[in-house]
Design goal:
The complex is a heterodimer of chains A (272) and B (316). Chain A has eleven helices and no strands. The chains are: A mainly alpha (272), B alpha/beta (316).
Chain lengths: 272, 316
């Protein structure tokens, strides 16, 4: 931008630290309120994983010789991963694609909102929904699924799954910068549902055909669910934890790169 | 980027009368030139209307003044510096055209959030009052009428108590009553000492609100002046009639500047009425419903943009 040749007398108003904190808190609070009031968001992100868990881990395992406690513990890890992925992909991908494409982000960019507040709010939203989903799954597991995890193991499981929302959020961010507002929900479902299946979130990975087990190596939810299974002592996979963390870091960086390109492109040009 | 000299003593007299200025501003989107070397100035305390048809470059100019789009060449300054400067954004409010606003948040929640972006916002009650949102403050955005939705966007623009407001087509799509309500709210901003730039393609809106009008056509400023001056530049008359002639035959009559047709009814913008009427009567003995009026702002606008672009003779 060219230097201004005009005389300036500008007494800049200052934002206090308290203003700044309040702003971030409000941004996050309204982001969550906005989402929880959208029925399709609440259903897709919270109701579906809980429903699947009740169906697969509680109802279907009843009285057919499967050790119910083991099955329910295994699926706590995999369905938890499914729930966290949904919260992150919908919370980041769909909402960003819509707000970018429909001009709302531009209204915010015209205001003095720090862009960090916008992304932080979406992150807080994804993390909060993730925690809620995993806690509800745990409650169901303990209450009806004969899950007998120790407190430290349960805490580690929650920690791993909630951290797992970081790679999913970066994937959502990338989708948010690629997808058009109307196609974003379909695109997210098109990614979310098949990769959940292929990563062994619905049917245990060792029961999938061999070629799918190999293909799962490139899918982030496979690695997160394996880390989660490790924590509850149910991984059949000899790969050390670091072997799962590395590809996750790779995917996260790749997605952040795509998002950064999208952000840069938006800043340089207008949307449409 | 220039640095805001906050150290300098604060004198009103030292404040530049110009709050926003562009020099040689040019912007091209793909092959379309949205703005062509635009020199433009917005004075403190005025309400300036940017008037022009769709695609004239109004929104592009406004977005560059908001620091949302980068000029290809030329400079933009708001309060003497780069509009992307955060301290400038504190003093600016904007009402933009937006396809969709989050519908599940309530009116007061939207206002509360945007107020928190500014260091010295208006109290919530005052924003709601000025924007006429008292009665709907607890409704979700999705439950509002078109006029109420525009007023929420207006509330978002004013809630930070900014000195300068940019309103992009604020009354587009509103009915007459909702439009008049928003007009009175915009006028009250000027009474409070704000500076307002609004874009519109409603000519009566510019006439009703603005101190000064800038007519934009295909990325160029083609006219500038008070509403009265703009009107006085239209020396012509308007002739309406119902005729069996074709629109092309009418267009070829000497002195006809432009013509629009609705089936057999024609409306012509002419330099002088008499020779055109004489010609019309001579060519069409069935001519009926002849009416001659002086040009209003609408026609003045047409004539102004017409001279610049003789190929754009409208017919619908």
């Amino acid at each position: 931008m060219a230097t201004s040749p005009f005389p300036v007398t500008l007494i800049a108003p200052r934002r206090t630290v308290a203003n700044f904190v309040e702003l971030f808190v409000k941004e996050a609070k309204y982001e969550m309120l906005k989402n929880i009031r959208i029925p399709i968001y609440a259903i897709s992100t919270i109701v579906f994983p809980l429903m699947f868990y009740v169906l697969f881990a509680i109802v279907l395992s009843a009285g057919n010789g499967i050790n119910r406690g083991q099955s329910a513990t295994y699926q706590l890890a995999t369905m938890g991963c499914f729930g966290v992925m949904g919260a992150s992909l919908f919370g980041f991908g769909v909402s960003l694609a819509m707000e970018r494409g429909q001009g709302w982000l531009q209204v915010k960019r015209a205001s003095p909102m720090p862009i960090a507040a916008y992304f932080t709010a979406k992150m807080v939203n994804a993390l909060t929904f993730s925690v809620v989903i995993v806690m509800l799954l745990l409650a169901i597991g303990y209450g009806f699924g004969e899950v007998r995890l120790s407190f430290p193991a349960a805490a580690k499981l929650v920690g791993i799954l909630v951290l797992g929302s970081l790679p999913f959020s970066s994937l959502g961010l990338a989708i948010g910068y690629i997808a058009k507002p109307n196609s974003a929900p379909a695109l997210v479902n098109l990614i979310y549902l098949p990769i959940s299946f292929c990563s062994g979130l619905w049917i245990p990975i060792f029961m999938l055909p061999h070629f799918l087990q190999r293909a799962a190596q490139v899918l982030p939810p496979y690695h997160i669910s394996q880390l989660a299974l490790n924590v509850v002592g149910m991984s059949r996979n000899p790969t050390p934890a670091w072997g799962h963390v590395e590809p996750l870091i790779g995917v996260t960086l790749l997605c952040l790169g795509i998002a950064a390109y999208g952000y840069w492109r938006d800043e340089g040009q207008l949307y449409g | 980027m220039s640095t805001a000299s906050a150290e300098r003593p604060h004198h009103w007299a030292a404040q530049p009368a110009s709050v926003a200025r562009t020099r040689g501003l040019t912007k091209t989107y793909e092959s379309v030139t949205a703005l062509r070397k635009v020199d433009f100035e917005l004075h403190r305390g005025e309400l300036l209307a940017l008037l022009g048809p769709n695609g004239a470059g109004k929104t592009t100019l406004l977005r560059m003044l908001l620091g949302l789009a980068r000029p290809d060449s030329g400079s933009v300054a708001v309060f003497g510096t780069d509009p992307r400067n955060e301290a400038i954004r504190y003093r600016v409010g904007a009402m933009l055209q937006v396809a969709r606003v989050p519908e599940t948040l309530k009116v007061r929640e939207h206002i509360d959030l945007f107020s928190s972006y500014y260091p010295n916002p208006l109290p919530m009650a005052e924003t709601l009052h000025i924007a006429g949102l008292d009665e709907v403050k607890d409704r979700r955005f999705g439950e509002l009428s078109g006029g109420q939705r525009q007023r929420v966007l207006f509330g978002i623009a004013i809630c930070g108590n900014p000195d300068l407001l940019f309103l992009d087509e604020p009354t587009v799509g509103l009915d007459v009553e909702a439009r008049r309500l928003l007009w009175s709210q915009i006028r009250s901003l000027i009474a409070r000492g704000k500076t307002v730039l609004l874009t519109t393609h409603y000519l009566n809106e510019a006439d009703a609100l603005a101190d000064r009008i800038l007519v934009l056509q295909q990325g160029n400023i083609v006219a500038e002046g008070t509403p009265a001056e703009i009107k006085s530049r239209a020396i012509g008359k308007q002739v309406r009639c119902s005729s069996r002639l074709s629109i092309d035959e009418i267009r070829r009559i000497p002195g006809v500047l432009s013509v629009t047709a609705d089936r057999q009814s024609f409306a012509m913008q002419v330099q002088a009425a008499e020779p055109v009427v004489r010609e019309l009567l001579q060519r069409d003995s069935w001519l009926a419903e002849l009416e001659v009026t002086s040009a209003g702002l609408e026609e003045a606008f047409l004539a102004l943009t017409q001279n610049h672009n003789p190929t754009a003779i409208g017919s619908n």
